[in-house]
Structures are given as C-alpha cells and as structure tokens.
Model the fold of this input.
Amino acid sequence: MPMPAIASDRLVDLHNDLTHYDTTISSELREFLRGNPVNRSRLVVDTELEEALRTFKAESPAEVECRRDLLRYKRRIDDVVRELLRMIDDRTPARR
Done:
C-alpha cells in the first residue's frame, strides 16, 4: 500500500500498526493451515486500530485516500479473523 510522499507521523504509525496486525493474523493462519495449534488470544479483531483509522484527521487528499485504503485493508483482515475463528470452531469436536 503506497504511503503519500509527505505523510504525517501518525499515519505512518497507523500503517505500521496495520502491518503488525496483518503479520500476526497471517502467522496464525499459516499455523492453522499446517495443522498446528493456533493461539486464539491473538485472533482478535483490532477495534482500537479501527477507531484510530476512522478518527485520523487527514491533512491532504493523498492522506485521505491512504486512510481509506488502510481501513479497507484492515476490514479484509478482520474478515479473515472471523472466518478463521469459525473454521477453528468447526474443526474442534463438540465436547460431550
């Protein structure tokens, strides 16, 4: 995702936070696909990041577009989190 040439430090921080969120979820998905145990405590929709992105005050049209792209991408990651949790729950046999 391209960053505007002159982006505020806060937007760069949000981009880095989103990258960390993406990396965390990706590593858990990889473990799931390999049949390894998954750390469910890491599979959480990051509502704080969502709020920070929504309330970010863009200073240029490029930052507005970048913020929109970051939000859109974050919501795709959220969809992966929800689907992965559903798949984990479906794979876990019901206890009797």
